[in-house]
Amino acid sequence: MPISVKMLRLKRYLCLLFFFSIFACTLVFIGMKMLQKNELKSEILRSEQKSYSQNLQGVISQSVEIAKDIMKKHDLVLFTFINNAYLPFVYSWLCNTVNMGIHEQILFITTDAISKQQFEKDWPNVKVVVLPETSLNGNQTYSKVGYVKLMVKRTEILNSLLQNDIEILLFEVDCL
């Protein structure tokens, strides 16, 4: 085989090798970028979980402290979890129970500070703790993500109250 044919084949192989190496480098680069993106997502998720845990622990601590204060005077803490969509129900419930003498036993967990301010102004005997979770405000449809998140948080708080030997009655404001 003549040398020029061998040289031509060698050039083709070198060109192919060059293009395959560029292709391989591109794949490695894309893989590294995807890995960095996944690591960033994992870091954000860990940060959100830590923030969630810290917020929830603060709410749990406040709830336990308030519930213990209620237990000093009463045998039972009346507990419910509300958000701003339920304010008309809450006010109706409070109006209908005002003469029962139970408002000092109530512990509301709400998802917004405005509700807490309204309760403190209008119903000073009712204890309110704010769960700073804006995604849980508004009407939550049964079995949808927001509703389930609300119920999980409620369960975590209830569990902590029970583990601190606090007698509770869980109630909903849309019924008497």
Largest sheet: 4 strands, parallel
Radius of gyration: 30 Å
Instruction: Return the string of H and E elements.
Output: HEHEHEHE
What would the average pLDDT be, to the nearest integer?
80
- How many DSSP-defined strands? 4
Low-confidence parts: none
GO cellular component, one term: Golgi apparatus
Pfam family, one: Nucleotid_trans
InterPro entries: Nucl-diP-sugar_transferase (IPR005069), UDP-D-xylose:L-fucose_XylT (IPR052636)
Organism: Octopus vulgaris (Common octopus)
Quickly list its features.
single chain; 176 residues; 4 helices; 63% helix
Please provide a written account of the structure.
With 176 residues, this protein is α/β, with parallel strands linked by helices. The chain contains four helices and four strands. α1 (3-73) packs across α4. It is rod-shaped and about 110 Å long. The termini are far apart. The model has no long low-confidence stretch (mean pLDDT 80).
Please summarize what this structure is.
The chain is α/β, with parallel strands linked by helices and 176 residues long.
Show the helix and strand layout.
Blueprint (H helix, E strand, L loop, with lengths): L2 H71 L3 E6 L4 H11 L8 E5 L2 H10 L4 E4 L14 H19 L4 E3 L6
Helix pairs in contact: 1-4
